[in-house]
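hey can u check if this looks right to u? its 529 residues, i copy pasted from the old doc so theres a chance i mangled smth
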Amino acid sequence: MKLSFRSIQDAQAWKGYHLPQYDVAAVAARTQKNPRWLHFGAGNIFRAFPCVVAQRLIENGDMDTGIVCCEGYDDEIVTACFRPVDNLSIAVTLNPDGNIDKEVVGSLCESLTMKDDAARVAEIFRSDSLQMVSFTITEKGYSLRNANHELMPAVAEDMENGPAACKTFMAQLAALCLERYRAGAKPLALVSMDNCSHNGEKLQNAVIEIVEAWQKNGRISAEEAAYFATGITFPWSMIDKITPRPNESVEAQLTTDGVEDVKPFVTTKHTYIAPFVNAEKPQYLVIEDLFPGGRPPLEKAGIIFTNRDTVNRVEQMKVGTCLNPLHTCLAVYGCLLGYTSIAAEMKDEDLVRFITEMSYKESLPFVVNPGIIDPEQFLNEVLTVRFPNPFMPDTPQRIATDTSQKLCVRFGETIKAYMASPEHKASELKLIPLVLAGWLRYLIGIDDEGKRFDCSPDPLLDSLQSRLSDARLGAENNAEMLRPILSDASIFAVDLYEAGLADKVADYWQELMASPGAVRATVKKYVDT
């Protein structure tokens, strides 16, 4: 059987699957007529989390419309994956006991691309019914600048030319909001759901910088520019659900069930996609309740709404202490030690001691309890349930992607807390600097056995590797080559020399570079002391 509107009418054929408990076609028709929720960045976490949340609300009678998605970057997600299966997807939950839950999700009611459906997207933005536009476009999707912090030429061109015929996504988004202003200035919430610090602020800063350039260049009026302060809000959020790339073992299970044509594939823009998504069961989404035009009742499906300070504390707890720093440590050291599975790394006593001691002794003392989620309980769940799940096909290679963009939040905030503390010094840290040194060792692209490997994509990879081009495994390396990196506050949130950590990181790096086997020996040395 193939995934389609028609096939899911036969419940017996889909035995063992939760099917939509509503008329999918009718909900899709209502959504197209009165869109309430538009989403950009239709990747795996979007389908595994927000789409399932929407399905619950529709099934419970709390919503009568679903979600419209639009791709502004990778059109093949829509054209080659979503549309051939009537915008349906199969959400597979991978439980720690080996059982899987399978659900056909029908809440994605229309799929669009900015390239081919710009008129329809503009129509949706003008719609009175639209209340929220959400995003999972990754942190780099909000950036207007290149690796050298220079305004990208296409962005500068859009700023100069104004809202007509924009080429870059943030400018296109600002232009769409102007469409809404000109259609009656109805309010709207733009909600980043990306896994990055102050995500709403990043989105707001990008949009406002473009709008201010347009006003300065005489492309829009002062009244139009003011709408972005009076009618558009940018709620902050914290999202957490580990959603690995679609795995062949899950495909095999679905194929055994008789489901056809669900093979994962990679688009020409390197998106890993399939008609199914596989993910863990734990999930968290906390959103600042700042919706001037109303919103879907997401709280009825477990989403937490609160104020900005609480969202920020939850985000700092997760991204800066209880999950993401551990992930980065396992990512760089997993690649160096030849692992291809996070769960397998959680059987490595050295690595488990590494992340446990780092999180409990160095990071957790500086976390602020957000009140709505207990940090210690959250951390314990990560260490004992989530990361060790043997049925989660997550890899250190996936997590190592864009590490240069993540270190400032995952470790920089803790380092700054030590620098500001009257009782502690950043130089007291032992394992956080070992993670940073491990990342520098990882950039060499040679594992602990002396074998070459491909580093994961990163916008700074080429420039960083060029600075380390003279480094040799087993040779006497001049640590001065690290100085431009260690002093770069845009990477670490602080100049590590000013923090008193640069020499320690450099010394660790020298140890890690000493010879094949030095990575394992260095980890053992410092986690055992």
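The first helix runs from residue 24 to 33.
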